[in-house]
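ARCHIVE RECORD
Type: protein–small molecule complex
Small molecule: magnesium ion
Source of inputs: curated submission
Record status: active
Notes field left blank by submitter.
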Amino acid sequence: MRTLDDLRRELARMDGRGYPAYRDLQGAWDLGPAVLHVDHVQSDPYAPPSKIRLVLDRAATAVPAELVREHSQRVAAGDHLTRLLCDALRRVGPSGRDKAAGSLRMMVPGQQVLERTAVLVDRERVELRLEAALPAGGRRIRGRAATALLAEALPEAVERSLLPGALDVEALRKHVELVLDQLDLQSQLRERGLIAFVGEGSILPRASGDSDLPLRRGAQPLQCPETLRTSFELPSGRMVTGMGIPEGITVIVGGGYHGKSTLLRALERGIHPHIAGDGREWVLTRPDAVSIRAEDGRSVAGTDISPFIGGLPQGTDTSAFVTANASGSTSQAAGLVEALEARSPALLIDEDTSATNFMIRDARMRALVPADAEPITPFMDRIGPLRRQLGVSTVLVAGGSSAFFEAADHVIAMESYQPRDATAQVRQLIAEQPAALEEGDDELFPHGVDRVLPAGALGAPRRDGGSVRGRRERGSSGDGERPKPSRARGLHTIQRGHEDVDLSALAQLMEPGQTQAIALALDAAAGHLDGTTTAAAAIDRVLETIDRDGLDALSPRRGHPGDMAMPRRAEILAALSRCRSLAERSS
Ligand code: ADP
Ligand code: MG
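STRUCTURE (tokenized, with ligand):
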């Protein structure tokens, strides 16, 4: 194998030549601490960066074998090493702004611990996946800068983060232990009859509306009300105490600005473990709880919203509702039913992001507008039947209306950021001023919630197992054109053929790597839509593939997949449901 010295010589030889000569870097180089694999070289300085991998024997690193035995350990360790490597790259590499210096980049993790494809670690080896923007002066190769980047900064980053003497093994051990404890607590929620848990002392507020970092100044640690207090004993021997939110219907009330939405947002994100220092280490929610909201303007493709909306003007069928432009109420109904389709056991809903007419209707309005002239059956009339018929729990923020008191199993009042159990007080109020619910006893979903999508609804299958958009939409350049895989643009957009799928309403989508994985999961799911398979089953088949072969299996062949993070079934289904081409083909 070519050595570090060979690499230096090669880069010196390339200096000043045209950029395409970088192609000769392709292949493997033994850099000493790691073998560098150059998988794909960018064609010019403005093209997407080159893809490289570093592969080390696990035994040559300071990562102890006993910390990477099980899958969840490997995910936790991979998460930690990704963070260390990102740090090291920041310290030793060029800033990335200067094309002349080039740059080294790796997927940057957020506050949550996710399975990602950036760093793979097992008992045999550690594999790091990076992108390198190779240095250019105009369109010429800058050999010296490339040497500094690949032959110096790169091995140094590895030495500083992974090798004996540099890696803080205790910190790694603690991280893995924390994540295993968190996952264990999360897995106990179900048998304990809980939807979520919020540890005593948690810091829920964030630094700002557009930051997921903890609020540093003036944050009030959560104090748990006695009646909801519960404890968990965890594998490390650690005991954690805090507030358990039971299955059933929990309503969060309280004055404006008293921390209701902050609590709900923490629950939304408690589907994944959080890193030490985040403040939400012990906020854990059932992993498939789904947050839903109104999202007017979205498209809907065949979702049964009839339990909530029926008798629309012009006789529109709402048991397989199709629209390119949903209203606030129809969009929220569709989001809710799609959460059920994703087998969610719990819905998380905030009044701030809900359509009022979807949620509630008061007695005087019921008197004014007769039921047969009102297409909407409000959620307040369905929340109980959802619980009883389908076993679906709801955690709901409702500070502006007492409409949900009758249905509530528990009421939590937020007062100056602290929760108080107000259930008994609300029972008292109900006894003094009773109000009738108009729940009815009809079966909500006599045909179930699963959609069978038409064959080719997401485009024709791609030959390599993914899919392409229908040829019709590929444009006129037509024959022989290799269809492009779908891809993420940032956190909230998936580019599929000519369509941009908008995911900005998905509160529980956390990292762009998940968006990228969802984009490719949609391509793979497209291949399973044969006219008899349900949307959920198509997605399950993709998830089974990931389970068996890892996230890498989603990736099309070109270059390494260092840019993915594990998505949930709910977000994949939500993305699928928002493809406008799907609505077009379903109408
Ligand atoms: P609500 O939904 O009840 O109107 P929010 O949850 O939006 O209130 O919170 C209002 C403000 O209070 C936000 O700026 C939030 O960051 C802050 N906040 C929430 N919880 C805490 C807390 N525990 N300590 C300090 N500030 C908090
Ligand atoms: Mg609020």
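CURATOR ANNOTATION: Residues 540 and 569 are 8 Å apart (CA to CA).
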